[in-house]
Amino acid sequence: MQVHYGFDNVGYIKNPVVTTGSFDGVHIGHKAILKRINDIARGIDGESVLITFYPHPRKVLYPENAGKNLVFILSQKEKIELLSKTGLDHLIIVRFTLEFSHISSVDFIQHFLIAKLHARFVVVGFNHHFGHNREGDFEELKRLGLQYNFGVEEIPEQDIQQETVSSTAIRKALLEGKIQRANAYLDHHFIIMGTLGKGAHIFQRAGFPTLTVQIEEAGKLIPHEGIYAVTLEWNSTHYRAMAIIWLDNYGSNEPVLGPLNVDVHIMEFDNILSEDDAKLFFQKQLADHVDIADEERLTSQLSAACSSLDELIF
Length: 314
What we know:
Blueprint (H helix, E strand, L loop, with lengths): L1 E4 L10 E5 L7 H16 L3 E8 L2 H5 L14 H8 L6 E6 L2 H4 L3 H10 L6 E5 L12 H11 L2 E5 L3 E2 L2 E2 L2 H9 L3 H8 L4 E8 L2 H5 L5 E5 L10 E9 L2 E10 L14 E6 L10 E11 L7 H15 L5
Parallel strand pairs: 1-4, 2-3, 2-5, 3-4, 5-6
Antiparallel strand pairs: 7-8, 9-10, 9-14, 10-13, 11-12, 11-14, 12-13
Helix pairs in contact: 7-8
């Protein structure tokens, strides 16, 4: 997969089959769209293209309300990692600005999909809107397709157990600690990528030394506080581990508001990984809180979580 930042240096793409959107999570609905553009591209000797935007439009358009506390299932680095595994040929990341937001739906098609890419086919998800004030819809896309001679197709919503899959539903599941539900919607394990650093002393004293995972991108969603079974990938090798997501209220019986910390205890592994990059793949929640304020209870809790890991298949 080739990654392009903006349209200026994209170059020639053969018979482009294009889709657009945020694709936060690269979930099962997104994968249906990506599979379709890949299939169409192969059928016309073309190449598949995803146009996405950074930062997220809501962060730019509504920084003081709807976008202020918006969190994302994937950082940009994680999104690129997952998209690279879908068979997509080209990812175009467009910097979203207030100026860009004023481009009309017609101008977006004319200036970018036609003039820049020479799109042969455009595929969108159900109820997709584009252009200034989300004025463009599938009916307009069909009209423009006839005008500019490109094919169009709409992919229906994807359902799991009669529940519509969406990035919003996945965020809700993760924020509630419902990892297995989120993973079903995603069709892959929820991922956190980051640089490993020195772990918290409280876990060392409890007999479970950890490394902290330093989150690189502000706005990356961290699941609900708790203990999770995870697979840690480091240096192309996978290890059983438990992730501890916690608030630093040690020594206090009062709740503390603030950013969540992510530590990881790696089973059957002694090497120091500090300052190395790693990926955590979340499997299951083992506890829905962390007893930071009581070392004795914390040791007992972590011991029970480790025992639970032995019952899981990684």
